[in-house]
């Protein structure tokens, strides 16, 4: 009997991982090797089992970069020591919170959504709030909007509230940043994802950086002007899945990198195709294909500073 194979959408539902996370664990860390077919990738039951194990280990406090190449039995051994970190009801609880917020959003309950987001942000770490609430919520609403079950107004209402809250988190974390530890976050023009830049700015705050977020869709010339005038240690530009597939993007990012100050690092985030990512890396550009990859890069890299 042929083994069942699953598309990305099914994998995300079965593992409670975002598509960005699955891609990052696959492409950056080699944690799984899905089958390739015309039009995309298909994942086996073995891939799904392994992703679930990896998620449980990461939830228990380990970084994906340190466990991605372990065998499944080794991952299970780690989990035996950290059973208390994985309450069986935690995934259901998180999903219920996302459901609750989406329902309130559909009812235009602005205040209820705002208060629930603030409550969830206060109850856990910024990293977990981002990975368990913000990212799944954004993906869920985008999906429902594409199906017509969420209106443009409802979607915009939610995104305004999330944007405001993330801005507050970025400012609060930035107040603790060391002098010179400032990073600029934005997206280049055309086909970009604003929340990718906002979420990475919030993650950077957890690593001791101040995130200077300039909004989405900036011309290259304005990105360069801001970087030079502010003297930032690094520039992070987030690409959407569509722009991450465009071959021209490697040369565009190289042109930006060549004009940045010598000690300013360029980091490109988002689902960038492997060949394009390899070209960027050959130009001295750091590529982080997902939020966890970006987090790992900042935590493992020597501190960016001017």
UniProtKB/TrEMBL annotation:
Residues 5-73 form the HTH merR-type domain. Keywords: DNA-binding, Transcription, Transcription regulation. InterPro entries: Cobalamin-bd, Cobalamin-bd_sf, DNA-bd_dom_put_sf, MerR-type_HTH_dom, MerR_fam, Meth_synthase_dom. Residues 179-306 form the B12-binding domain. GO terms for molecular function: cobalamin binding; DNA binding; DNA-binding transcription factor activity; metal ion binding. This is MerR family transcriptional regulator.
């Amino acid at each position: 009997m042929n083994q069942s194979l699953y598309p990305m959408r099914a994998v995300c539902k079965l593992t409670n991982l975002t598509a960005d996370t699955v891609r990052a664990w696959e492409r950056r860390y080699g944690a799984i090797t899905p089958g390739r077919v015309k039009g995309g990738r298909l994942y086996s039951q073995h891939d799904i089992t392994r992703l679930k194990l990896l998620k449980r280990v990461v939830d228990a406090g380990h970084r994906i970069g340190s466990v991605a190449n372990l065998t499944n039995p080794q991952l299970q051994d780690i989990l035996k020591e950290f059973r208390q970190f994985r309450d069986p009801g935690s995934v259901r609880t998180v999903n219920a919170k996302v459901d609750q917020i989406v329902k309130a959003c559909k009812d235009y309950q602005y205040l209820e959504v705002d208060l629930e987001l603030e409550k969830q942000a206060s109850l856990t770490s910024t990293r977990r709030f981002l990975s368990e609430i913000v990212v799944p919520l954004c993906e869920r609403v985008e999906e429902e909007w594409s199906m017509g079950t969420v209106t443009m107004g409802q979607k915009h209402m939610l995104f305004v509230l999330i944007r405001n809250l993330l801005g507050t988190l970025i400012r609060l974390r930035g107040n603790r940043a060391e002098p010179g530890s400032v990073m600029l976050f934005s997206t280049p023009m055309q086909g970009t994802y604003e929340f990718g830049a906002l979420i990475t700015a919030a993650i950077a705050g957890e690593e001791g950086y101040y995130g200077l977020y300039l909004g989405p869709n900036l011309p290259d010339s304005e990105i360069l002007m801001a970087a030079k005038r502010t003297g930032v240690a690094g520039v992070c530009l987030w690409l959407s899945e569509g722009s991450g597939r465009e071959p021209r993007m490697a040369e565009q990012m190289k042109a930006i990198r060549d004009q940045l100050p010598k000690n300013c690092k360029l980091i490109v985030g988002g689902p960038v195709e492997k060949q394009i990512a390899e070209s960027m890396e050959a130009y001295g550009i750091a590529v982080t294909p997902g939020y966890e990859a970006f987090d790992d890069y900042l935590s493992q890299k020597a501190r960016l500073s001017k």
